[in-house]
């Protein structure tokens, strides 16, 4: 399998970086071809141009070589993994920009009209989203409604053809112990392994 793994966190040494490394290492250990991108470190250009804001017409060819590369790559993937923190109920800006510039018409989906139903074009039918948070689960659900759940599971991934969306939140990171973080990394590796064949990560391999 060919799996794309995308990290969106600007601080070197963050727990997100550790999750990213754990997932990439596990997938490669299991024989996957991994396309790994640290979007902040690579300086992914997140701001979309006016020409890239259409939703129906096939997107024009981009003049940015980095964006063009990501568009070519994403069409070849069998699965996707996104690793990022919860910032104000949103992914970091670099990942929002990545979605807006890479998941464009003709690459990730097609849409007959503005009122129509999208048809996903990606061959990646599975995705894993790993989030970190410093908000307790009860408050996240009760006060905020878990906006990242809606973003990934309802607003983005089904739109481009991903039917199997898995999401794990590690919380609260700020006051976590070394033992807790080690357990979370082990969980991330299990989730990555389970993504390969679509099984429940709680089952025995």
Question: Which descriptors apply to this entry?
Answer:
19% strand; alpha/beta; 7 helices; single chain; 205 residues; five-stranded parallel sheet; two-stranded antiparallel sheet
Secondary-structure blueprint of this entry?
Elements: E1 2-7, H1 15-29, E2 33-38, H2 39-42, H3 65-74, E3 79-85, H4 93-102, E4 109-110, E5 119-120, E6 126-133, H5 137-144, H6 147-156, E7 164-171, H7 178-197
Parallel strand pairs: 1-2, 1-3, 3-6, 6-7
Antiparallel strand pairs: 4-5
Give an overview of the whole structure:
With 205 residues, the protein is α/β, with parallel strands linked by helices. 38% of the residues lie in helices and 19% in strands. It has seven helices and seven strands. It has helices spanning 15-29, 39-42, 65-74, 93-102, 137-144, 147-156, 178-197, and strands at 2-7, 33-38, 79-85, 109-110, 119-120, 126-133, 164-171. Helix 1 runs parallel beside helix 7 (178-197). The longest helix has 20 residues, at 178-197. The protein is globular, with a radius of gyration of 17 Å. 34% of the residues are buried.
Please give a quick description of this structure.
This protein is 38% helix and 19% strand. The protein is of the alpha/beta class.
What structural class is derived from the secondary structure elements? alpha/beta
Shape: globular
Output the number of helix runs.
Answer: 7
End-to-end Cα distance: 17 Å
Strand content: 15-25%
* Adjacency order of strands in the biggest sheet: 2-1-3-6-7
